[in-house]
Amino acid sequence: MVILGLGTNLGDKLSYLRLALNAIKNIPGLEVLQVSPIYCSDALLPENAPLDWNQPYLNLALRCDTLLDEFKLLDELKKIEWSIGRKPEKRHWGPREIDIDILAWDQKIINHERLTIPHHNLPERPFALWPLADVAPFWIFPIGYYEGQTAAQVVEPWGSRFSGRAPFHTKQIPHRVDTPALVGVINVTPDSFSDGGNFLAPEAAAKQFNELVAAGAEIIDIGAESTAPNAAAIDEKQEWSRLAMVLEAIATIRNQTFITPKISLDTRHASIVEQALKFGIDWINDQTGCDDSRMREIVASSGLDCVIMHHLSIPERRDNVMPRNLDPVQAVYAWGEERVQLLEASGISREKIIFDPGIGFGKMAEQSLRLLQHTEYFKQLGTRLLVGHSRKSFFTLFTDQAPTERDVETLAMTLGLLQHHPDYLRVHQVDWCARGLRVAAAMGC
User: Fold this and answer.
1) What pLDDT, on a 0 to 100 scale, did the predictor assign at position 192?
2) Phi and psi at residue 114, to the nearest 5°
3) Strand blocks (E) in 94-137
4) pTM (predicted TM-score)
5) Residue 358: band (very low, low, confident or very high) from pLDDT cuts 50, 70, 90
6) How far is residue 433's CA from residue 412's CA, in Å, rounded to a whole number?
7) Dihedral of CA 387/388/391/393: which sign?
């Protein structure tokens, strides 16, 4: 059993951790068995360190099995660090895109100029030992004051993992890098099916933004036109009048968060995207799948990521659904294949495309459920995959609760989707889903 520690305090920290995790998984002769939660902590600094070194860290641990020896594994880990951006000449204590350490290796004790196992001062570093204890609670210290004690024993005096009272203000955060990233929703509309009217005011939208990020959302999807059945049609001028002040308010507070979320703009109108670019949006979530050639031009020229969703009509119409005798999985896949080719022909690389099978849009409840049961099939498109199942009407197969009361069903589906490996899950109740994902990950789901 080998325990690796990963840390970062520069740039898009979650992306760096994901890059490192995926690269480690691809090391021949090594298997990642479990990924810990992520912990945020103050930087560990030497005396008289430059002020710009004082940037908080994210840390996690991996429990692995390997056929490699210690120094061969160390060489592989250094290659990964360098490939992500941490060069050999970088100073030991300075900020870094990624830091990968061997924290422990069964009961081995190694003291070498290149490698020390167990890692230095583990019992004084909750940002390293707490993640280790999450994935290997019964690992026994083989040396020093704590010799013979388990990792779980040694972390007990620090108390709650969430209070921030441990040394370096270390605390666990809700985000993970081994489960789908959560997309939180802010509907700046009076008539969305689930939460219409709640976030029309910029102050309310900004408050919801902060709550979603704190709960574990990595992407915030903001839209001002409801696509629900029977929603009132609005023109582009009205859509922008709803969005402008909300986007401005969120742009003002966005960089104040330790984990800066990406902003997704939910719109089908190219003119809205053109105006929103000045607010630093990262995604376009076009529920028409970029039907508009002007929208495709903007996506290609801006380099933004683009979500394309299968649909039959936008806004959705209850009288326009897929025929019952049609295999919904094959039909949606064929649409996706054709649409991806269209976007590529428009100068948009496949790496920038995120496919959404459009749960509830032009589908009867049974068809939506079948799509969810075969979600992984759409990974063959070669794009990232987003699923928007939250509070949708197909849940009437399981409950007669109103949309706002379907969070239990949404959480259950969220956990069920883990076996299909989507990249993103778009949900209203981010807190519940993040908490559920943490438990599921600990159970190896």
Assistant:
1) 61
2) -95, -20
3) 99-105, 110-111, 116-117
4) 0.92
5) very high
6) 9
7) negative
Q: Tokens for 397, please give them.
A: 């197969």
Q: What is the pLDDT of residues 17-42, one digit of tens each?
A: 999 999 999 999 999 999 999 999 99
What is the Cα gyration radius of the chain? 23
Which residues are marked as active site? 86, 96, 99, 101
Residues 427, 411: Cα–Cα separation, whole Å = 9
Instruction: Read off the pLDDT of each residue in 2-9 and give the average, rounded to a whole number.
Output: 96
Count, in order, helices (H) and strands (E) of the chain: 12, 16
Q: What percent of the chain has pLDDT over 90?
A: 79
pLDDT of residue 364: 93
Taking phi over 0 as left and psi of -120 to 50 as alpha, with beta for the rest, 435 belongs to: alpha
What is the b/e burial string over 269-306, where b = at least 16 CB atoms within 10 angstroms of the residue's CB?
Answer: bbbbbebbeebebebbbbbbbbebeebbebbbeeebbb
Question: Residue 222 to residues 30, 147, 344, 385: CA-CA distances in angstroms?
Answer: 41, 53, 25, 19
Tokens linked to 411:
């959480």
Phi, psi of 2 (to 5 degrees): -120, 135
Q: Which two tokens stand for residue 324?
A: 């019952």
Work out the average pLDDT over 174-188.
95
**SS3 state at 297:** helix
How sure is the predictor about 169, in pLDDT bands with cuts at 50, 70 and 90?
A: very high
pLDDT (average), residues 404-427:
96
Question: Hey, what are 37's tokens?
Answer: 């939660």
How large is the average pLDDT for residues 50-78? Answer: 93
CA-to-CA distance for 214 and 340, rounded, in angstroms?
34
The token pair at 219 is: 């992407």
Pairing label, strands 110-111, 116-117: antiparallel
Question: At which residue do the structure tokens 């992984």 appear?
Answer: 376
Q: Which tokens is 319 given? A: 């009288």
What is the mean pLDDT of the segment spanning 301-313? Answer: 92
CA distances 193 to 53, 64, 326, 337, 391, Å, are: 46, 45, 27, 30, 9
